[in-house]
Design a protein that fits this description.
Layout: E1 3-9, E2 12-13, E3 16-17, H1 19-31, E4 32-39, H2 42-51, E5 56-59, H3 68-81, E6 88-92, H4 95-108, E7 112-116, E8 118-122, E9 125-132, E10 137-142, E11 149-153, E12 169-172, E13 204-208, H5 218-228, E14 231-234, H6 236-240, E15 261-265, H7 271-277, E16 282-287, E17 300-303, H8 306-318
Parallel strand pairs: 1-4, 1-6, 4-5, 5-12, 6-11, 7-11, 13-14, 13-15, 15-16, 16-17
Antiparallel strand pairs: 2-3, 8-9, 9-10
C-alpha cells in the first residue's frame, strides 16, 4: 500500500540533519509514492534527505531569530489550502516538532495522532500504532476525516536507511503573514554542555537509578560511561530528585534510546523506564534485589550492590 505524497518536517542541529528526521524519511518512502521534506535549513539537509528518499526539500524562510513553529505550520497549511499539500505529514516528537504539529492541527482543523511508534496501512488508509498503559499495550488509531493525516512520532521508532538517491531539489515554500505571532523573537537559547556521545545517538548507555543511594554516587555512572565511551543516563526518580538534569532521563516521559548496550545500575525497572530502553540490543542490569522488574528484560543480570559492582568494573576497565 502507498499513499500519493508524504511530507516530513526535517530538522537540523549544528548544520546536520537529525537522526530522527532520517528515520522518518526512511519510513515515509515505504508508505508513499512521493516523499518531500519541509525544512528551515534546506541547504544543510538536501543531500542527506535525498539519500534517504526525499525528492524535494521545501525551504521555509523567515525563521532566523524567530519561532520555527508558526512559520512552518502556516506554510504547510497554505500549501494544503492551495491544493498542493501532502496526503500525510510525519513530524518528530521534538520541541519544534510538537509546536509545528499543534499549530498545524488548528490551522487545518485536523486531528494529530501523537506518541506514534509505527505507521501502518489499515483498510486502505494510514494508521498510527500508539503504546498505552506504560507500553504494555498498543492501539491502532486512524483518521476518519478528509484532512491530511498528521502523525507525531517518537524518536528511534524506525531505522534510518539510505535509498541511494542523490541530493533533493530545493524549492521555496511561501510563508503567509503571521501577524502578531510573527513578531515573537528568540532572545536566547540554552545549550547544555556535553562531553562524549549524546544520549540519543550513543552505542552504549550507562544509566543510574535511586539504588545509587545519593547524588554523589552518580559519579560512578559517569566514570563507567567515560571508560566505555558511553553516554550517561538516568531514571525518572533521580531526575525528579534533582541529581541530574532532565536531559539525562530515559523513559516514557524522557528519551527513548536503542543502543547496542544498555547498562542499568541501581534501577528497579518501573514500566515508565522500561518503555524508554527495552528496545536496546543488549541490556545489562545491576540490582541487589533479585526480584527487580529490570531483570525481566535483561540479557545479563548481576544481583549485587552497585556500590561494589561499579567500582570493580571501572577498575577492570582502567587496568585492561
Amino acid at each position: 500500500m502507498s499513499v500519493g505524497s508524504i511530507w516530513v518536517f526535517v530538522e537540523a542541529s549544528d548544520g546536520t540533519i537529525t537522526n530522527t528526521s532520517l528515520e522518518l524519511l526512511t519510513k515515509a518512502r515505504d508508505l508513499a509514492d512521493t516523499v518531500e521534506a519541509v525544512s528551515v535549513s534546506a541547504s544543510d539537509v538536501a543531500a542527506a534527505a535525498g539519500a534517504h528518499g526525499a525528492t524535494t526539500v521545501h525551504q521555509v524562510d523567515g525563521t532566523d531569530g524567530k519561532l520555527v513553529g508558526p512559520a512552518v505550520a502556516s506554510a504547510i497549511a497554505d500549501a494544503v489550502a492551495a491544493g498542493g499539500g501532502p496526503d500525510a505529514i510525519l513530524i518528530a516528537t521534538s520541541y519544534d516538532g510538537r509546536d509545528v504539529a499543534g499549530r498545524l492541527s488548528v490551522k487545518l482543523d485536523a486531528s494529530v495522532i501523537t506518541n506514534v511508534v509505527d505507521v501502518v496501512e489499515v483498510d486502505g488508509a494510514l494508521a498510527g500504532i500508539v503504546p498505552i498503559f506504560g507500553g504494555s499495550t498498543n492501539v491502532t488509531t486512524k483518521f476518519t476525516n478528509d484532512k491530511p493525516d498528521i502523525f507525531l512520532i517518537r524518536p528511534k521508532s524506525f531505522a534510518a536507511e539510505e535509498s541511494g538517491g542523490g541530493p533533493a531539489a530545493v524549492a521555496s515554500l511561501a510563508v503567509p503573514d503571521l501577524g502578531a505571532t510573527g513578531s515573537a523573537v528568540v532572545t536566547n537559547r540554552f545549550v547544555e554542555e556535553q562531553t562524549g556521545p549524546s544520549l540519543d545517538d550513543a552505542d552504549i548507555v550507562v544509566s543510574g537509578g535511586r539504588g545509587l543511594g545519593e547524588s554523589a554516587n552518580y559519579d560512578l555512572v559517569e566514570q563507567l560511561a567515560k571508560q566505555l565511551g558511553a553516554a550517561p543516563g538516568a531514571s525518572r526518580a533521580i531526575v525528579d530528585a534533582g541529581w541530574v538534569p532532565y536531559s539525562y532521563q530515559v523513559g516514557q516521559t524522557g528519551k527513548v534510546v536503542k543502543p547496542n548496550v544498555y547498562i542499568a545500575a541501581g534501577i528497579s525497572g518501573a514500566t515508565q523506564h522500561l518503555v524508554g530502553m527495552k528496545g536496546s540490543k543488549t541490556i545489562i542490569a545491576i540490582n541487589k534485589d533479585p526480584e527487580a522488574p529490570i531483570f525481566s528484560v535483561a540479557d545479563l543480570g548481576i544481583v549485587g550492590d552497585v556500590h561494589k559492582v561499579l567500582p570493580k568494573l571501572i577498575e577492570a576497565l582502567q587496568n585492561r
